[in-house]
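Exam revision sheet. Question 4 asks you to relate a sequence to its structure. Input first:
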Amino acid sequence: MTVPKITLLAGDGIGPEIISAGRALLDALGPFEFEEALIGGASIDEHGEALTSEVLERCRGADAVLLGAVGGPKWDTTDPDSPRPEQGLLGLRKGLGLYANLRPVRPLAALLDASPLRREVIEGTDLLVVRELTGGIYFGEKERQPEMARDDCVYTRIEIERIARTAFESAQRRAEGGGSARVTSVDKANVLETSRLWREVVSEVAGGYRDVELDHMLVDNAAMQLVASPARFDVIVTENLFGDILSDEAAMLTGSLGMLPSASLGGDGPGVFEPVHGSAPDIAGRGIANPLATFLSIALLLRHGLDRHDDAARVEGSVEAALETGLRTPDLATGADSEREAGSAEITAAVIAAL
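Answer key, structure tokens:
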């Protein structure tokens, strides 16, 4: 049996800490072949660019890529000619053809009281944000002059069609257990031409998925509904910028950004799996970073990258089991008597023991 090859991109800030924890979890599942490489600020310091062509090729040759986090104040700049850590992430997505970002949001029972929203508001929430990754304003033509700046937002029919199919097929899979399949397409069609094309194309694609209900929602209303009535959503599909913002908002339903995983998928190449939280340089090196979003990203890696669905379920169950013991990293702690604050190493050991 071929041993899966996983490229580890630790990145910056707490990235090396959570990737180290993730590798320990993968070792418990094993066997895997690991290859480590630089991305983001760490790559800028070493090579002068956030993603080298050599690292991109190494990622192409892997079965899956596990990424930590990129960025930090050390590399913040308004100079358009200076490299930025985030360019490494965008380049990786573009270079691997990763056009679909999946971000599941399901508050765990043990953390219902850790959310800033009331328990009764978030109970029953189980949604999936499907974000288009390679089009839109992030990749449009850019211009910077002393008195003006411009970022073009461009979408093609083909880009919208493929992400819409991903959303409808995801809704079908989620409904296989007997639930209803529903896609909410989020846009700004009352203002933007790109959103009008988006709505038109998504509606056309929906014709091939008669078993999936489709509704359209303006992005400002979607932002409000996510905090007012999150359980109403099943699958949300939206463009790059809106998806970036809405998925981070949705993350807080789980109690912390430190709980939200993601999978970036495309065609025939490997997927990139990463926690949604940032590099958190303020807590780097203190041993308190929350590794659970990384563990849940590993579950997505196992499910979508390696087709190991049973192992993915084992990892998710082990995270829940560790939380049920009352262990909490500082970002999850509410001060309840049933909780005990734990560092990265202790909660990692608890999850591996449950596994």
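Marking note for examiners. The chain has a mean pLDDT of 95.
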